[in-house]
Every structure is written in structure tokens, then in C-alpha cells.
Here is the input.
Amino acid sequence: MKELRYTLLTDGPSDKSIVSILNWLLKQYLPRVPIQSRWADLRRLYRPPRELHKRIQKSAELYPCDLLFVHRDAETVPLNDRLGEVVNAFNMANSAGGIPPVVSVIPVRMMEAWLLFDVKAIRLAAGNPNGTVALNMPRMCDIESLPNPKVTLHTLLREATEWGSHRKNRFDTGTGAQRIPEYIDDFSPLRCLPAFNALENSIVETIQRRLWAS
Here is the structure.
């Protein structure tokens, strides 16, 4: 194929940084295919749809693509249940046809968990690339069981600034978190996580089914 266009539909605007991860994964299997990504921003609509199947329909309508990624944080819901939700929503949205293939993106528990492995990227996102303070990074095997990965990540970003206590509390951790994927060149360490493996396997199956790599 000459080009792959994909759209990412997320739970919220802070999750659009998943684009960097998706680009990396797609390039592993389509190295010679230009990738064009877009984030489905439905907030500007007069009445943004709330039901997932309607959000999928509207995303496909407003952001035409070859592949639609649907992000949902697992939070306290089992991964397979979230996957089932997306499949059911796709079937409802595609009842009349016209919806591109859908791949689920479901981090456990939330997207921030997938950003907790690269100390250098965290320091860069905190604006202190040469920092020396020891950061209490979680073990990779524990990332998906953290009760609140977002709190863990934001705490690490504040510590990485090495600012004084009052100033570091004013650091914009939300923006910092969104910058982290931009500083990561290799997401392969995440392959030890079941949820990441599920995403990668779904991408491979879709590429093979659609014969995009041929």
C-alpha cells in the first residue's frame, strides 16, 4: 500500500500521546509504508456523542482512515471485558457498513502505565535531562498492577525537575506526561506486558488480514 491512514479515538485528550506508541508499532511491520495519524477530537461538536458505538461512527465519518484505534483505559475492569466492549461497539457502529477495521488500545490500568519505563525520557520531559536525583521507578513486572499509574508518573516528573518543594508542585505534570513518548525511540520493553502484547498482536493480525504488508 502507498500509505496507511489511521485515526485514534481516546477516552480523553491527554491520551492522544498514544500516537507515538502506535507509530512505533506500525513501523515494526510496515517499515516502508508512510504512516499518517490523526486524533479524533470530538469535543468541538455541538453535541459530542457519549456512547462508544456512536463515537466510533462519528470518528470514522469526520476522520476517514484505513484503520481506527479505539482507546479505553481498563481501570478496574478486566482486559477481556474492555475488549468485548469495543467489539460490541464496533459491531453496532458497523451495522450498515462503512467502518474501517478497529483495533483496541487498552492499557492496564491506564495509559500512563506504559510511560513508566524510560528514566531518560522522564527527565527530558521534566526539562532536566542531566538530572542526577534517584527516581523511584517501578519494576516492569509491577507496572500493570499499580493502583494509580498517573499519580506515580506525575510524582516522578516532579521529582525529576529537582526543583524546590513549592516550585515542583507547580510543574505542569499533564503536559510533561504528554511529552514523554516524544523522547522514546524504542517501546520494545513494553512487550513484557500482556496488554501491550494484545495490542501488538491485534495490529499484526489486522495487517496480515488486510494484506497491507504484501
